[in-house]
Amino acid sequence: PQPSITDEIPDPASSTIRERTSSQAVSTLSKKPQSEHFGTLVIIEVGPQKKAYSIHKDLLCFYSDYFHRAFNGSFKEAVEGKLSLPDADADLFYIVNGFLYTRQLRSQDNQTGPDLGFTTLGNLWGFGDRYLMPLLQNTAMDAYIKRAYTLKGTFSAQSIARRYRETFPGSPLRRFLVDWQAHKSEQSREKLGNWPQEAVVDLAIALFSMKPEHRGINKVPNDRGKCYYHVHAEGDHC
């Protein structure tokens, strides 16, 4: 049955949203918005302070299946042309809003790409995961990986635990974290004792399936292709 205009769009983390298998949102830089994406404006209210952003509706829908559903159905958000994200971080959404128009990740203090840091990049990936924005996820992931290669360290147990709390099993971000740790160094029992059980299991699987020529190389192998840690619809690739 069709929802009435008083119905609210389901929570983005709900199975109602995630059961959709056919993504319309763009996931590659080769697909660019056109002039028709810059028509009607909608209002996005962010955080408990309800900081308002005026954003072109079709541009937002071009990047996000979640917002496409919210603003093109019979939900009240589509009727009112306004949607509230009370739990969203205002500083993070500033970067998201800029990304919609520039395809770059840039903070208010002018930090860009890998320089944004693992926490912000991980949060951007999580925002893209929550609101079904695959190109945002892929751009954040590329910057995340580049930063990891630049710093050459390992991720703390605290970082691993946080990302496992905030992501779904098998997600590209989880896979990269585990692969990075698996190829970087041996893990002490003390350190692994602070890992989530799911992460320990994933690490064991990664170590078991590792090719002999990849053992001890101290980096994630580069023979997996650019899209290995990306989010794409079936048949889509960079």
Please outline the helices and strands.
Blueprint: H1 15-18, E1 41-46, E2 51-56, H2 57-63, H3 65-72, H4 76-80, E3 82-85, H5 90-102, H6 118-130, H7 134-151, H8 157-166, H9 172-184, H10 189-192, H11 197-209
Parallel strand pairs: 1-3
Antiparallel strand pairs: 1-2
Helix pairs in contact: 2-3, 6-7, 9-11
Q: Name the CATH superfamily classification of the largest domain.
A: Potassium Channel Kv1.1, Chain A
Name the average pLDDT. 87
Tally of discrete structural domains = 2
How far from one another are the termini?
A: 37 Å
Instruction: State the total count of DSSP E strands.
Output: 3
CATH domain topology of the largest domain? Potassium Channel Kv1.1, Chain A
CATH architecture of the largest domain: 2-Layer Sandwich
Query: Radius of gyration, Cα only, in angstroms?
Result: 19 Å
Strand line-up in the sheet with most strands: 2-1-3
Overall geometry comes to elongated
Structural class: mainly alpha
The number of helical elements comes to 11
At the first level of CATH, what is the class of the largest domain?
A: Alpha Beta
What is the share of helical residues? 40-55%
Q: What percent of residues are in strands?
A: 5-15%
Low-confidence stretches: 1-6, 15-21
- Write the H/E string, N to C: HEEHHHEHHHHHHH
* Largest sheet, strands/sense/barrel: 3 strands, mixed
Pfam family, one: BTB
Biased composition (Polar residues): 22-31
Region (Disordered): 1-31
Domain BTB: 40-109
